[in-house]
Amino acid sequence: MNKTIQKIFQTGKGILAADESTKTISKRFKVLGVEANQKNISEYRNILFETNNLNKHISGVILYKDTLDQQLVDTKKVADFLKENNMVAGVKVDESTEKFSKNNIELYTKGLDGLKERCDCYYEMGAQFTKWRNVFSVEEGVFPTDEIIDKNTSDLVKYAKISQESGLVPIIEPEILRDGNHSISETKKVFCKVFKALFKKLESEQVQLDSLILKTSFVVSGSELIYDDAESVANETIDIFENFVPKEIGGIVFLSGGLSPSQSFSYLASTVKKAKEIDFTTPISFSYSRAIQSNAMVVWSKNQTNEAKVQEIFFADTEKASKALGQ
Ligand code: 13P
Predict the structure, then answer these.
(1) Theoretical Cys-Cys bridge with 322: which of 57, 116, 121, 146, CB 3.0 to 4.6 Å?
(2) Separation CA 263–CA 240 (nearest Å)
(3) Are 96 and 136 in contact (CB under 8 A)?
């Protein structure tokens, strides 16, 4: 698992999150007027994976289970194709979300049943890491309750242990959602509660911290408010890391959470800069889906045969994400 961490956090490289569930990617296709069938989904993803020199900026790819299982690129399994191109294959192992309480806002994530067997199988198929996402909503002024924080952080820890037992580096993703009009300081309060509970449990359950990756949102205001300036985001985000995240974890990667590509790159650059200034030594990188895919997906939706143009736009956005890491 240490080797996997080293491969992922190579200088100037990050993760492509291409693990949208069929439901999620179908929604994105529909908005763009593209029929969301398996053929289109596979063809679109193949175009991304086969981008020339993708490994210049991308060290690992998170796949949806069907992609790891079925999809072929040049008659090769995707995991083998990525490996031959010096990228590490990972797989999303969480399943759909379910209502936790009557308010319709609090959700927990399913997927613990049979997880060990699935992880063993994914390992055999060439995966080297996994991802599990939980969501915490701050919408409509309803802050996550102690009960949902306990449930979701406990499940993240159970998942991390199982993944490590199968030799797969776990990426724990407690996403604090942006939907709503909460201020950056309200978001930060939620981060404090969630991260405190999460890292306390990870330590008491003796999860191997150096073989674990944290995937997190930036500390930002709700999406209904105007964008925060990059310096405030960096200050608040690094403050959370310093207070709650043990330095010995394998690394930290950011999700984009519906921020525009340029905001995602700018917040990443300012946060990495701040981390360097204060000698925060835990590796930091990106694990973006929308920030590096959305422009390419729009181009593809307009002309699905113009692969070269889609790949040019996609490569350019991975390059911007890489530059934000300060290389
Ligand atoms: P976004 O970068 O679009 O937030 O997606 C990252 C991710 O993996 C969400 O689970």
Answers:
(1) 57
(2) 20
(3) no
Give the domains, in start order, of the chain with CATH numbers.
2-324 (3.20.20.70)
Q: Which of 173, 236, 274, 320 is catalytic?
A: 173
Residue 128, both tokens: 């080297």
Among the listed residues 65, 77, 131, 215, the single catalytic one is: 215
- φ/ψ of 105, rounded to 5, equals -105, -40
Q: What is the mean pLDDT of residues 52-66?
A: 96
215 labelled catalytic: yes
Mutate to test the pocket of ligand 1, among 16, 223, 287, 292 (most ligand atoms within 8 A of CB): 287
Give residue 68's pLDDT band: very low, low, confident or very high (50, 70, 90): confident
- Convert the pLDDT of each residue in 90-110 to its tens digit: 999 999 888 987 667 899 999
Read off φ and ψ for residue 152, nearest 5 degrees: -70, -40
Q: What is the residue whose two structure tokens read 């994530």?
A: 109
> Using CA atoms, how far apart are residues 122 and 175, in angstroms rounded to an integer?
24
**For 175-219, how does the pLDDT look when each residue is reduced to its tens digit (9 = 90+)?**
999 999 999 999 999 999 999 999 999 999 999 999 999 999 999
Question: How many secondary structure helices (H) and strands (E) does the chain include?
Answer: 12, 12
pLDDT digit string, tens, across residues 266-293: 999 999 999 999 999 999 999 999 999 9
Tokens encoding 18: 């291409």
Is 17 touching ligand 1 by the criterion CB < 6 Å?
A: yes
Cα 148 to Cα 119: distance, rounded to the nearest angstrom: 25
C-alpha of residue 255 to centroid of ligand 1, in Å: 5
How many residues appear in the chain?
Answer: 327
CB of residue 288 inside a 6 A radius of ligand 1: yes
Interstrand relation of 72-73 and 76-77 (parallel, antiparallel or unpaired): antiparallel
Residue 238 CB–ligand 1 contact under 6 Å = no
Q: pTM of the full predicted structure?
A: 0.96
